[in-house]
Design brief:
The structure is a homodimer of 452-residue chains.
Chain A: E1 5-6, E2 16-18, H1 42-45, H2 51-58, E3 63-65, H3 68-74, E4 82-84, H4 86-92, E5 97-102, H5 113-125, E6 130-135, H6 139-151, E7 154-160, H7 161-166, H8 168-176, E8 180-184, H9 190-194, H10 203-216, E9 220-222, H11 229-235, H12 237-248, E10 255-259, H13 264-278, E11 285-291, H14 296-299, E12 301-306, E13 315-320, H15 342-349, E14 353-358, H16 360-374, H17 380-399, E15 404-409, H18 417-425, H19 435-443
Parallel strand pairs in A: 5-15, 6-7, 6-9, 7-8, 10-11, 10-15, 11-14
Antiparallel strand pairs in A: 1-4, 2-3, 4-5, 12-13
Helix pairs in contact in A: 2-11, 3-5, 4-16, 5-6, 5-11, 6-8, 11-13, 12-13, 16-17
């Protein structure tokens, strides 16, 4: 039997991150200062980000070297395995060859440490003593807590209220790594106090609180787990390793599938391949899977909008459901964001990436089939990708073609078993985005230049 | 910098298990039929075990081939990584080189699938349709549920009542893999009904229930997650891989440390090394770490005793705290067993393995230090091994010697964060085994031949 799992030695950890910016067609749309409406420059960002990350955010270089201390920390879990899903293929009776890149082997159980580590490193290098951040289900907050513990930084996390109440174990995980965790909205910030009427909180509110803390304390910076260029940049270790592992398997993808919340998992897996597509070296199709309850790419407006609820961040060009939109509490907490990374949005806008939205129950149905064949219980976020993979595998079967499918299994579901419980008991809901939500989203857009 | 992580390709998955039985000095003490007091033969075991496993249990062959379908399933997570704990070494300022073999990358998060898979396979080969078992914290039950899903077997799990109430996520995990889970003691069995006065349950009671179900249903067999020879045999893939990985690191252990509950993690890691020790090829020291609340090896009596509470199993020669002993509810659920594997007990009795008992808080203190340096949050069971490793590292420092320490990190703590929460809040208890417990243990021993 051929291999099931393609493993690489530590020397195969990438030495550079792939920066897709210079390959994108046209000039990138800049973020805007919300006060002046003018392009935001480094000065708009220095109160909350170190210069090392700001330079990565706007770099014109196609490759950016990974600092040695970051590569050394990556050794704790990288390279991650690439699997051939032989048992799933057999269960589906499909001619498709299905591969998945598994990021759940990291200490925090997802792809998030890939960027948490370089962010903590650059801040420590800049003499910063503390990082503040937000977290929803806890994947990002626990990853940053882990990264801060490696570089001797304090870590303060504002955790979305509903998740804080429902997921005490993720909070304990952050505390075990030494972080301080607050329930958001808190009474520790102006932003939190202004949102006391929304006691369950939202990612947008928690971002406002964390940004405010960082802006007021010169020893503290802010760290974001997705959306920004430098975050997607750091995640490109995923796609680079996948290219090397697919070569071991003598395979090349016809289609690549990833789930999209803020876009860092999707960008990290696809950008090293998309660079080849943009340069005419391959003709891969790309599928972005998102929740029907928060259908940013499939139903959002392409416009400038805030990254947070209160309106403290620069305006970013992206598909958005409106910065005031509070998505229904689907279990894929990492996909509950009103916007998406500008770089991913631009690729969707350009027609290079196809977006699809799925309802909650159909994603869990796919996840359970995956767990019972491949063994790994997926997080609810990549369950959306698995749903799309089942469609692609069926399409290959209908066409009678041996297509190669690659998808990102960006985290395990060890902290999401209450959701599986609800699915198996038949009590899981299928919330959808409504016309009323749509009208509210449009009304809430800030005044800013229109986007074509 | 030298390597942090030593990874092997799939071709390095062992092709044989290491059977230590023929190397042990003297004739092995047989299990006894509890009714006749005579050595238990295959006929005593066929009602609940398939012949394939019974033959492994008593095999005189030093190596037993791993069937191809088992090796194929092992590919889902094996070989597991071996790490050099460089960050922990630096934090301890020790000249010792510390290595750990990490089994938490398996789908169920521990070493247990190493034996669950071959047990499910042998039963499926024998035409069995269902397996019954017990589980405490859920590591074993979830591993067997996973293995049954791979080979198309039904799986029925009796889960210790207190864990069933406290750890709903482990139950959900088993159900996600398709298993049926009952709270034990249940009213489904005579054994369960007879123990209704102990509503929190115990491993011994749950074993009685699962054995009873298997004994009454010809299509159902029983599966045990530790203690028996064939279970320890299956776990020797751990130690064999570790030998190959230490060779990559140009290292050989001076001391090997593992936690002991039933003995399968400890045996799996050490037996491939102990064979060399018994043959005069090395002089490794071996340290078995157990809880002070259930100090089987350090304070138990060496005697024949039942494996379960009700007295359905053969009598086994082992250190025991008495089959009626219900250990206090320490969080290391996998170490809460009144006995230990006869093979491990024999090695302790012979002076080849040194046993040490630790209190709960000192093990969590060690685990938090490990999490904040190495990144991985350990399960409470291997936290006992880490405590012993800290002692060994300090001893090396005092002696000024560059000793090499290997230990087994047999599982992650993702399902044990409530325990970390209690430790960090200062509310974790330190139960200890009392003189009264000791007297009760001695009184409860069944009449059987005395052991030297």
């Amino acid at each position: 039997m051929s291999q099931t799992k393609y493993v690489l030695g530590e020397d195969a950890i990438p030495t550079h991150w792939v920066n897709l910016l210079p390959d994108l067609p046209g000039d990138p749309l800049p973020p805007l200062n919300p006060g002046t409406g003018q392009p935001a420059g480094p000065d708009d960002l220095t109160p909350i980000f170190p210069m090392g990350l700001i330079l990565q955010e706007v770099s014109p270089d196609p490759e950016i070297p990974i600092p040695d201390p970051v590569r050394d920390a990556y050794r704790l879990w990288r390279p991650t395995p690439l699997y051939r899903a032989r048992r799933l293929e057999a269960a589906l009776d499909t001619p498709a060859r299905i591969f998945y890149k598994y990021e759940g082997v990291s200490p925090a159980g997802s792809h998030k440490p890939n960027t948490a580590v370089p962010q903590a490193y650059e801040n420590a290098q800049a003499g910063i003593k503390k990082l503040s951040t937000e977290t929803g289900a806890g994947q990002w907050g626990s990853s940053l807590a882990f990264a801060c513990s490696l570089f001797g930084l304090e870590c303060e996390v504002f955790m979305v209220g509903s998740s804080y109440d429902q997921k005490p174990y993720r909070r304990s995980m952050m505390q075990t790594w030494g972080a301080t965790v607050h329930r958001s909205p808190s009474d520790l910030t102006d932003s939190g106090r202004s949102q006391a009427a929304h006691p369950t909180g939202s990612l947008g509110i928690a971002i406002s609180e964390a940004v405010e803390v960082a802006a007021k304390d010169p020893n503290c910076n802010y760290a974001l787990g997705s959306v920004l260029n430098h975050v997607l940049l750091h995640q490109t270790v995923i796609g680079q390793e996948a290219i090397a592992q697919l070569e071991m398997a003598d395979a090349f993808p016809d289609v690549i599938v990833g789930c999209v919340g803020g876009g860092s998992n999707f960008g990290g897996l696809t950008f090293p391949f998309i660079r080849g597509t943009l340069r005419g070296e391959n003709k891969i199709r790309y599928v972005a899977a998102e929740p029907a309850a928060c259908p940013t790419l499939t139903r959002g407006v392409y416009a400038y909008d805030f990254g947070d609820t209160v309106g403290l961040t620069p305006l970013m060009p992206m598909y958005t459901l409106g910065h005031g939109f509070v998505p229904p509490p689907v279990h894929a907490g990492g996909l509950r964001y009103h916007g998406d990374a500008p770089m991913v949005c631009g690729l969707v806008k350009a027609g290079l990436v196809e977006a699809r939205a799925y309802k909650q129950n159909e994603t869990f149905e796919a996840a359970v089939q995956f767990a019972r064949t491949e063994g790994i219980i997926p997080a609810p976020e990549p369950a959306h990708a698995i749903r799309a993979v089942l469609e692609e595998a069926e399409a290959a079967k209908q066409a009678g073609e041996e297509r190669t499918i690659l998808f990102g299994l960006c985290g395990h579901g060890n902290f999401d078993l209450a959701a599986y419980d609800a699915y198996l008991a038949g009590t899981l809901e299928d919330p959808e985005f409504s016309e009323e939500d749509m009208r509210a989203a449009l009304d809430a857009l800030p005044s800013a230049p229109a986007l074509a």
